[in-house]
Design brief:
14% strand; single chain
């Protein structure tokens, strides 16, 4: 569940026509006004505002939306009940109001028009309204077990307008750039290149930073208003943690490279030395069969003389053309 709160308006007529004449619009409830005609609704609101004519922006307008996941259980009665819980927690009471449900979007939602001039002629304040509304919506979501989206990533940016559009654009850009920097000063420079101004709030009379804010397209938000992770304290901690994690990762990589080099060196040291280029490797002596049962094993036999005699006799026979005679 979430609430979208536009700036207060001046004309009840335009706001009433937009909400009541929308196709398939259903008026769920009304307090202090007639609902038979758009003209009567507008007249009754204007009668109420005359109790405080000095308040020019008397038109209060809030849209309450739920996730499509909640559609099966969101009856008109439940939505109306939750709307009144929202009014009470937002201190929107004792005044004229109109509650209209629309069916033109995939997500369930209703619109609330209320008179910022209450029944005693006092002004219903709107300062810090968006911040208070965010807390109330979260509380009601948890109480009723409505679907809760995980962070701002699930919000459909293309449907946002005005301040909400700028706020989510700031969130996306700051989150992305903060992951690439090593300090807030570096972040400030990178954001400035994208048209975003980053401002520091200092403790009075000192240089001690107390807060941070961002501005773009005429809108300015505190970091914590955009998202709690973008407050000065949280943003500083995030950047410091990223720097430390980067240093630790670099150190681990360095150690792994050194270990790998040592493993390769140890492996090379254990390999046998290669023969010099052009030199044949040393021949290993052939193994000698051992037969201890052979009677003449171990005798020193020399056949050099026989080989020489045979070579000489063969040569002489070839010269005289004599046949070989075996004398053995």
């Amino acid at each position: 569940m979430m609430a979208k709160i536009p700036k207060p308006g001046k004309s009840f007529g335009g706001c009433v026509q937009y909400n009541v004449l929308k196709q398939d619009a259903v008026i769920l409830d009304a307090v202090g006004i007639r609902t038979d005609q758009v003209l009567h609704i507008t007249q009754d609101f204007n009668i109420g505002r005359k109790m405080n004519p000095a308040l020019g922006q008397a038109v209060g307008h809030i849209a309450l939306s739920w996730s499509p996941n909640d559609l099966p259980k969101l009856t008109d009665e439940l939505m109306l009940s939750v709307a009144y819980e929202y009014f009470k927690k937002m201190k929107i009471q004792d005044t004229q109001l109109l509650i209209v449900r629309h069916h033109d979007k995939e997500h369930p939602h209703l619109h609330i028009i209320y008179n910022r001039v209450d029944n005693q002629g006092k002004t219903i304040p709107d300062n810090l309204q968006r911040r208070r509304s965010a807390k109330v919506c979260k509380e009601l979501t948890l109480i009723h077990g409505f679907f809760m989206a995980e962070g701002k990533q699930s919000v459909k940016r293309q449907q946002l307008k005005g301040a909400d559009r700028v706020k989510y654009a700031l969130f996306d850009t700051i989150k992305a750039e903060s992951q690439r920097v090593k300090s807030l000063d570096e972040l400030k420079a990178r954001l400035a290149a994208k048209g975003i101004n980053m401002l520091f709030k200092y403790k009075s009379g000192t240089t001690q930073v107390q807060g941070i804010s961002f501005s773009k397209d005429g809108y300015q938000f505190k970091g914590s208003e955009i998202d709690r992770s973008l407050s000065y304290g949280n943003l500083t901690k995030t950047i410091e943690r990223q720097v430390q994690e980067k240093q630790e990762a670099d150190e681990r990589t360095k150690n792994m490279v050194a270990e790998l080099k040592q493993i390769i060196k140890d492996f090379d040291d254990k390999q046998p030395a290669e023969p010099a280029r052009g030199q044949a490797p040393a021949q290993q002596p052939a193994s000698i069969d051992y037969h201890p049962e052979y009677p003449e094993y171990g005798l020193d036999i020399s056949i050099a003389d026989d080989i020489d005699d045979e070579a000489i006799n063969g040569r002489n026979r070839r010269r005289t053309k004599q046949a070989r005679t075996n004398t053995r």
